[in-house]
Amino acid sequence: MSDEKKIVIVPCSGIGKTYGTVSREAAYDVVEDLRPDESRLVPLSMLVLGDEGARAAVDGSQAITIDGCKLACATKMVRDSGGTVAKDYAVLDAYRRHKAFKPAGIAELNEGGMQLAHALAEEIAAEIDMMKGSQFTDFADSSIKSAKSVDTTSGEADNA
Ligand code: SF4
């Protein structure tokens, strides 16, 4: 799949915060291991710096954001860059869904943090599948509609 058609994943850049590290680990897991053909990562820091390539990647694209706290920097920055946030994840909410995985550590996450990142990455991968599936369904629907409209036209032509 060309890069332009991939879903953009933007994790927050919460350097020095455990949840920020979880957001980045989850993003790497998605783009490198779980859905490398359907997704690509755009670093929040590049958007904040106004990097043209990063802004162009987000502009007009469907994006999934992962935020480390309620300031939601990744979500806000994607919107400010012209992107559409198809789904926004918050690490705290992910932790509430997966209480067994208690994250700790900053530069290096503990086992719980890595497990939480992976659980979140699996949720995001499933979301990507749904987004891609609905794109295919939309396409199939429009193909059926246009086929029907061709039939109708030819029917009218036959009746004429
Ligand atoms: S969302 Fe929160 S943790 Fe992430 S970069 Fe912004 S302030 Fe930092």
Describe the structure in your own words:
With 160 residues, the chain is of the alpha/beta class. Helices cover 58% and strands 13% of the residues. It has a single domain (3-159), classed as Rossmann fold. Strands 2-1-3-4 form a four-stranded parallel β-sheet, sandwiched between helices. Helix 1 packs across helix 6. The termini are far apart. The relative contact order is 0.17.
Summarize the structure.
This protein is α/β, with parallel strands linked by helices and 160 residues long. It contains six helices and four strands, in the order βαβααβαβαα.
Note the main attributes of this structure.
binds iron/sulfur cluster; four-stranded parallel β-sheet; Rossmann fold; alpha/beta; disordered C terminus
